[in-house]
Amino acid sequence: MRFPMRFALLFVAFALSLPAVQAAKKQELVLEVGQRWSYVTRDGDEESTLVIAGLSEKHKVYFLNLHDIVVHGEPAVLNFIPVTKKALRKSVTELVGEVENPPFNQSSLDRWSGMADEGTRIAIEKDLRTGLPEWIARFPAPDSGSAGSSGSSSIGESEDYKAYTKQLNQVNEALALYADEKLDEALALLDGVLANCVKPEACEAWARDAEKIRETRRKKEIRRRFNEAAELANAGDREAAIEILRGLEQEELDEFMTERVRATLEQLSKTSEPAD
Question: Nearest to residue 128, comparing CAs of 43, 58, 234, 237?
């Protein structure tokens, strides 16, 4: 008797929890790459505009460059902000121009799309006025007074902020490794960041990311062991297969894997019984 052997790798989504708001529904909007729009902004960002820089048609997500926006008290440009089509339609108010070949990182889109295909779709789900503050909150400001003797704080000048930016890049690298199924390398990089965290409020989110990757690795190992048991059973080594499956019974399994282990053990036990 042969047994099913392969199971899809379970990925855990790193999703942002974004607050919900009600907004007027836009009708008959044509949204295209290169358009510059005014939008419903946060207080203090009234002069800000957005440029549609890219699009994932498969996932219905637009990637925005936000201009003249205030981040931690400093004027800034935010690039590659993923926003769902529904959220963008709720946010834009007036088409104010077009930009030819807006800045856009195709490799970032490829990485984002790969993660989204595996269930990790990180995007602002509601309108920008309410979704953007929590997005920005993942990028804490430098400590006040650390940028110079004047006590002013300037993004990019603080040593703490430079260290934070380096750690943020390492986290992004870890997420890319995760998307490539290099879970051990991803965890090693994240654990290194968390061991010397310079921004506790950011590292709380990164620690949750690390735990989710750790759980994904654990489930992947469970599937590997189940596949090994199935291969041994197919090769006629039922005792070795049963030993592995009995060990899996002691693990914390999801409902699907629990049923697969029990069903396979039952089938193996029946085939092990002597014929009358």
Answer: 43
CATH number (3.90.70, 3.40.50, 1.10.3210, 3.40.1090) of 17-137 reads 3.90.70
Sign of the C-alpha dihedral computed for residues 140, 91, 119 and 259 taken in this order: positive
Contact call for residues 230 and 35 (beta carbons, < 8 A): no
Give the global pTM: 0.46
pLDDT for 86 beyond 50: yes
In this prediction, residue 52 carries a pLDDT of 95
Q: Please tell me whether residue 261 adopts helix, strand or coil conformation.
A: helix
Amino acid at 245: L
The span from the CA of 156 to the CA of 216, in Å, is: 35
Backbone region of residue 189 per phi and psi (left: phi > 0; alpha: psi in -120 to 50; beta: other values)? alpha
| Token pair for 66 | 């936000």
Largest CA distance in the chain: 92
